[in-house]
Amino acid sequence: MTPAAFLRTHSEPVRPPPAGQTGFVHLVRERLFGSLPAAIFTLLAAGALAWAIPELVRFLFIDAVWSAPNGDACRAPGAGACWAYIWRKLPYFTFGSYPEDQRWRVWLTMAMGAILIFWLLRRSLPGRNAAAALFFIVYPIVAFVLLSGAPALGLPNVPTDLWGGAMVSLVVAVTGIVLSLPGGILLALGRRSKMPVISALSTGFIEFVRGVPFITVLFMANMMLPLFVPEAWAPDRLLRPLIGVVLFSAAYMAEVVRGGLQALPKGQSEAGQALGLRYWQRVRLILLPQALALVIPGIVNTFIALFKDTTLVAVVGIFDFLRTVDTARLDPEWAGPNISATGYIFAALFYFVFCFGMSRYSLGVEKELSRGKTH
């Protein structure tokens, strides 16, 4: 008999894991009660939730005031959250003092932006290059015309003094996110440059901006930018903090991108040189795709911090979402402890939804990229 007769010609069927190592019970036992410290913290957390959740449910839903013409019902003893106040002030929270008969322009701008962002971020959809061109080139022009106005097109001018609420927060956040990433990439490449002047300028800018508080950058942008241009070309009151936000975020983004570039082996660049690729071709085709994939958590963390930092533009007189919530609660008709608490809870939900959405999307991208590496 030949040795080949003892070799298997087919694989054994895959056997399921033991019953005690699968299922919900095993998951709970392993993750929540896998050790004595884990069990203690699990019991403490369960006790805290058992105490807090019923009170929150009572305040937010059971005793909440859902409809009322003014704040009298919300100020009554035993009243919970005043959602009637949120509903009544929702237009102000969304648009600020933007003219009521022109608010369709804001809705149209937001709808176009949401469609383009969904098209751009949904990796399975075709034509993402076209989506990128529309979002980064065409959309900013169209959005500016719609929001600011163009009398020649029948759109009355709306000064930025009247802008406010969620629309301003989204304008500041989207502008900062869109411009800070390419700005951070350029600064990171400049800091790693072999040209001493470029490296020194990039390093100096990054270290200076990262060494001062964000509020300082906003005040400098608001007060000093008009000094560097003729009076007729002075930046708009909303454009000044936008520039400050972009510069501040780009400095932090530069360090995130630089970390990804330094994590790549030197052989990646040398391989590109061996193929005859020029510097910018190596950066665009080899280095940046790998570096950005490595630092997705850091990039998204910077975006989330930027979105939350939009609340600080209020210090230079911009009525962002949180500022409108804080102002609306001073209305004598709707003044009251529960009313103020409801406004801040609503603001927290607003920021949480956007930040959580960015976080979950980044996790999805990371998982997709990791699957691509294993196949």
Structural write-up:
By secondary structure, the protein is mainly alpha-helical. Among the domains are: 55 residues; 147 residues, MetI-like (MetI-like fold). α3 crosses α13, α6 packs across α9 and α10 packs antiparallel against α11. The longest helix is centred in the last third of the chain and has 38 residues. It is globular, with a radius of gyration of 27 Å. The relative contact order is 0.09.
List keywords for this structure.
single chain; 375 residues; mainly alpha; MetI-like fold; globular
Q: Structural class of the helix and strand makeup?
A: mainly alpha
Biggest sheet layout: none
Distance between the termini: 40 Å
CATH homology-level superfamily of the domain at 172-318: MetI-like
Beta fraction: under 5%
Portion of residues in helices?
55-70%
Round the Cα radius of gyration to an integer and report it.
Answer: 27 Å
Provide a compact summary of the structure.
The protein is an all-alpha fold and 375 residues long. The chain contains 14 helices and no strands.
Question: How is this fold's topology laid out?
Answer:
Blueprint: H1 23-32, H2 36-62, H3 83-95, H4 103-121, H5 128-148, H6 166-191, H7 196-210, H8 214-224, H9 239-263, H10 266-274, H11 279-294, H12 296-309, H13 321-328, H14 337-374
Helix pairs in contact: 3-13, 4-5, 6-7, 6-9, 6-12, 7-9, 8-9, 9-11, 9-12, 10-11, 12-14, 13-14
